[in-house]
Amino acid sequence: MSEVSLEESLKKFFGFSTFKGLQKSVIKNVLKRHNSFVIMPTGGGKSLCYQLPALLSNGTAIVISPLIALMKNQVDFIRGLSFNKNVAHVFNSSLSKSEIEEVKSDLIAAKTKLLYVAPESLTKESTISFLQKIEISFFAIDEAHCISEWGHDFRPDYRNLSLLINKIKLDSIIIALTATATLKVQDDILKNLNIQNAKVFKASFNRPNLFYEVRSKTDEIDGEIIKFIKGNIGKSGIIYCLSRKRVEELTEVIRVNNIKVLPYHAGLDIKTRAKNQDSFLNEECDVIVATIAFGMGIDKPDVRYVIHNDMPKSIESYYQETGRAGRDGGEGHCVAFYSKKDIEKLEKFLSDKPIAEKEIGKTLLDDVVAYSEILTSRRQFILNYFGESFDPENGDGAKNDDNMRYPSPSFEVETELILLLKILIETKQSYKQKELVKILTGETNALILSHKTHLKSFFGKGKYKDKNYWTGLINQSIVLGFILKDIETYGLIKLTPKGDEYIKSPFNIKMKFRFTNKIDSAVKIPNVIEYDKILMNNLKDLRKKIAKEYKIPPYVVFQENSLQEIAIKYPSSTSELSSIVGVSEGKVKRFGEPFLNLINSYVEENKIIRPDDLIIKSTGSNSSLKLYLIQNIDRKIPLEDIALSKGMNFNQLITEMETIVISGTKLNINYYVDEFLDEDSQSELHDYFINSETDNIETVIENFEGDFEEDELRLYRIKFLSEIAN
Q1: How much is the pLDDT for 497?
Q2: How many CA atoms lie within 13 A of 719 on its CB side?
Q3: Label partner for 382 (CA 20 to 30 A): which of 269, 451, 516, 651?
Q4: Backbone angles phi, psi at 303, to 5 degrees
């Protein structure tokens, strides 16, 4: 199929003009009948990667999904796009006998293009025998991380999918999809499904706007957390704790310090949990203290910090939880408090688990320890963990962690690195990190004694350095690629080709790592946004009050960047207020008076010395272009023609229009929006924007999960802001 016809098919079946991200490449690969493995974040449009190929292929695509509710939603969505309600069906335990017969009849008649099946259903001989009778285009395995015992949501029924698929149809084409997968999980999925030849499509895990910081956990932790929150007054934050008891305890400490805070954990009743979550989303409280039960469905874009009172059980959990900060691309500060005692407690919890589960849990904890104790780039460590390379000096967000912002000195390690690598060879690479450290420092355990390693000449050759030194050296050598932790053997340390080459041709090398268990509390990170935090908090409170009076979202009154500029410049008159980016004369007339009263009172009470002159920032659009766009839109000229006349592409035109509207000028584009969005769609979008805490476009796209294309959402946002805000 040509690229043109593929775009036409997208428009025909889904109403979209362009593909998102990796979608097109994945779809082309599936249509060429090649196995595919897709790792794409939530909101990236994974479903379309198998839905469109299914509609374009002969036969029926079998979609394996773990959740009945998810299946039903997708079937309803596909049916809504088609005149044929038989185009998609669910086949699971929720169906009656008559419904099952109807589904089978449609499949035999080749009316159905997508059949959603639970993995449990595939284990039934009756299901297998029936599916053998129909033409199958390919198998799609959604939530593929459920296959892996190393995944965060392991489902035993997923482990047998490869056998079941081959039983139904030999040499089937498979597309596996997941929102997150470590290298181990990715490897496990490919091996278990026997699709090692699959082409892998993987989006980046880098979140350059997040600042990563690890602090030593001491008895003063409560005071440190309170100090941090008070240094970020008015900003939204989440604090994660491993136990319900600690959630309640810390919530009370924060509350008595006059901070708006609420708890969230599974021990609270459903109504209380829902109420507390809504309060956080609606800015009625600044801080949520929670167990990991909180956050899975949270779509709050302006969470400015995530604090881990306790280190989580895996890097994957840490990545997911810190990922709830700065989803709008703005500031996101991630602080974790680390203590060896906490890790030891988690290890004790594993002691009663089956051996395999215990080994997996211990290996995951070792990675958490290594992350906490490194002195090099934390971002590089996280991205390496997910199989992604990163330049710690020049990569996007390279300086955005405590180690890179405030670097520690390096130490010469050539002699010790050679010793470590040679001992790996001498011991035939059969030990984990803990045993290697013991061998180097001359200690024994049952495993070392059973292998008689304590009798070897190299035993104890590194005792002139302590255990912490060798632990740090091993961790850093893994990050730099001289050795690796073998995922297949639960963490045996292996030599890499780079390490082998270093033994043959050693050179001077310096590394950074800690020699002690104690992590010094991080140097205070300077706040890069130099606005008056107290005034900013007061402005946000006033904005929320006015928004309630007008029954509109707070961002419609003034956007956050406008408030930040106000908190820098302290405008005292209507003319000065209208010079703030995003504040039109109409907004000044509508909302200006109470804000000016607040600002002037605050300046007087606190004896603030205002800047001598207010710098008027450019809107990013020159005045002649702005005037041209306004005049032609008033004449109802098609937007494509306007873009063409100025030598712009459509995306550039929308960006210019957004700049104009955000700066406070109204654009009436109803004539254009009405052509591609019907009344029901506009009503749905209006309800979303009027009730949303943010108009951040990435958040909006993620919320609608492909129901609208990006251009439609951006254009409707322009219409909405013009009518409601300007």
Answers
A1: 93
A2: 18
A3: 516
A4: -70, 120
Q: In this structure, what token pair is assigned to residue 544?
A: 């929320």
142 and 243 part of one domain: no
Using DSSP's 3-state secondary structure scheme, residue 337 falls into strand
Are 649 and 558 part of one and the same domain? no
Indicate the DSSP class of residue 311: -
pLDDT at 476: 80
Domain boundary among 202, 227, 262: 202
Query: Using one digit for the tens of pLDDT, what is the confidence trace for 679-702?
Result: 888 998 988 888 887 778 888 888
**Which DSSP category does 327 fall into?**
T
Task: Name, in order, each residue with C-beta under 8 angstroms of 565's C-beta and a sequence gap of 6 or more.
Answer: 531, 580, 581, 617
Structure tokens, 124: 């039934």
Taking the C-alpha atoms of residue 30 and residue 374, their distance in angstroms, rounded to an integer, is 41
Given a cut of 90, is residue 502 above it in pLDDT? yes
* Residue 313 · residue 285 · CB < 8 Å: no
Q: What gap in Å lies between CA 471 and CA 433, rounded to an integer?
A: 7
Give the pLDDT score at 299. Answer: 56
Residues 233 and 163 placed together within one structural domain of the fold? no
Under a CB-based contact definition with an 8 Å cutoff, are residues 608 and 587 in contact? Answer: no
- What is the distance between the alpha carbons of residues 117 and 51, in angstroms, rounded to a whole number? 14
Q: Is 525 contained in some domain?
A: no
Least confidently predicted of 237-241, 419-423, 592-596, 690-694: 690-694
> Chain-centre distance of CA 203, in angstroms?
11
CA distances from 471 to 336, 348, 367, 476, 695 (A): 21, 21, 12, 9, 47
Q: What is the DSSP letter of 725?
A: I
What is the DSSP track for 95-153?
S-HHHHHHHHHHHHTT--SEEEE-HHHHTSHHHHHHHTTS-EEEEEESSGGGG-TTSTT
Secondary structure (DSSP) of 173-210: -EEEEES---HHHHHHHHHHTT-TTPEEEE-----TTE
Predicted confidence at residue 1, as pLDDT, reads 52
Grouping H, G, I as helix, E, B as strand and the rest as coil, residue 282 is coil
Asked if residue 149 lies in contact with residue 184, where contact means CB atoms within 8 angstroms, the answer is: no
Looking only at the bridges linking them, the beta strands covering 210-216 and 261-264 are: unpaired
Domain that includes residue 643, residue range: 623-725
CATH of the domain at 582: 1.10.150.80
What is the DSSP secondary-structure string of 610-637? --SSPPPPP-SS-HHHHHHHHHHHHTT-
CATH classification of the domain holding 195? 3.40.50.300
Contacts of 41 (CB under 8 A, 6+ apart): 179, 180, 203
Residue 530 placed within a domain: no
Beta-sheet pairing, 332-338 with 303-308: parallel
CA distances for 394 relative to 380, 391, 522, angstroms: 11, 6, 23
Distance (Å, rounded) from C-alpha 317 to C-alpha 175?
A: 25
Residues 176 and 226 in one domain: no
Q: What is the pTM of this model?
A: 0.50
pLDDT (tens digit, 9 = 90+) per residue, 283-314? 899 999 998 767 544 557 789 999 999 999 88
Scanning 374-525, the segments in alpha helix (DSSP H) are 378-385, 402-405, 414-426, 433-441, 446-450, 467-479, 497-504
- Give residues with Cβ within 8 angstroms of 692, minimum separation 6: 553, 555, 699, 700
Q: Identify whether residues 28 and 134 lie together within a single domain.
A: yes
Most confident stretch, 13-27, 436-450, 642-656:
436-450
Are residues 584 and 716 located together in one domain of the fold?
A: no
Q: For residue 289, which of 246, 339, 342 has the smallest C-alpha distance?
A: 246
Whether residue 117 is found in the same domain as residue 198: yes
Domain count, the chain: 5
**228 in helix, strand or coil?**
helix
